Amino acid sequence: MLQTAGDAPFIDYTSQFRLDGRLALVVGAGSGIGQAVANGLAQMGAAVVCADARPAPAAATAGAIGGLATSIELDLTDTLSIEAALLEIGAPHVLVTTPSVNVRKRIIDYTDDELDRVVDLNLKGTFKLCRTFGRAMADAGRGSMIGFSSVRSQTTEPGQGAYAATKAATVMLFKTLAAELGPAGVRANVVAPGVVETPLTKQITSQPAWHQAYADKAILRRWAQPSEMVGAVIYLASDAASYVTGSTVFVDGGWTAADGRFDPPS
Ligand SMILES: NC(=O)c1ccc[n+]([C@@H]2O[C@H](COP(=O)([O-])OP(=O)(O)OC[C@H]3O[C@@H](n4cnc5c(N)ncnc54)[C@H](O)[C@@H]3O)[C@@H](O)[C@H]2O)c1
Questions:
Q1: For residue 106, how far is its CA from the centre of ligand 1 (angstroms)?
Q2: Rounded to whole angstroms, how far apart are CA atoms 245 and 25?
Q3: Domain 19-251 carries which CATH code?
Q4: 135 close to 181: Cβ distance less than 8 angstroms
Q5: Which atom in ligand 1 lies closest to the alpha carbon of residue 34?
Q6: Mean of pLDDT over the chain
Q7: Which end of the chain is more exposed for a tag (fewer CB within 10 A), N or C?
Q8: pLDDT (average), residues 238-262
């Protein structure tokens, strides 16, 4: 085993992923990946606050988890709502933020309203949340911030202009958080999923040819389920990732590893 100066010779690696005694705020917990992540963090021992702009689904997630889970209404696009949430729950040990929208339309056809919708939530909302909670977590001198980017931060297609730009921006936002808050003991990383069957992708999953084309693009030849995003978040949230910051963890079935155009005969 590689040892660093001052490290104990044997560490209990099985407990490194546990989150007992930690407070985790999951924004977007009312649906899809956020819902699964809230469940996973709770199973690892965290007291999870399920936050969403839609309070009923957030409460439903917390209710289904049970135990220490609670819920709160939080609108990412509203600074006052973010600050009220911080006042209510205090600085969490773990912050996960998932909310994003996509308007799939070519750049030359985009309206100002559509552009504002995508940028206001995906970029500005995430920024505002990280600003308020990053400050509090840095003051507390510890924590792990986890954002959600996408394979669209790296590879695009017609109709993804605004969304892809915000997902690339999310990578740089979290790298900058890592740089600014690292000295205060706060880590910041992003998870970049491939295609996941959630309400966000219903437009695609409801069209068989489109759904199949995306399955074929991934090396694993299928879509992911939200539960398959949870392991990466638990890892980044926990002490198992104590030296991991400013990173992007791709959970994409190999989407970004191979171009998928052709399988040459051997
Ligand atoms: N689903 C995919 O295929 C996929 C692929 C790549 C990346 N991602 C990323 O993963 C993340 C989660 O996606 P998902 O599929 O779980 O989405 P989703 O649409 O299923 O869930 C998003 C949740 O965010 C909440 N929300 C919306 N606006 C909000 C606001 N202003 N304030 C607070 N909450 C708000 C919604 O109510 C909803 O519960 C997104 O950042 C997305 O870009 C998803």
A1: 21
A2: 19
A3: 3.40.50.720
A4: no
A5: 16
A6: 96
A7: C
A8: 95
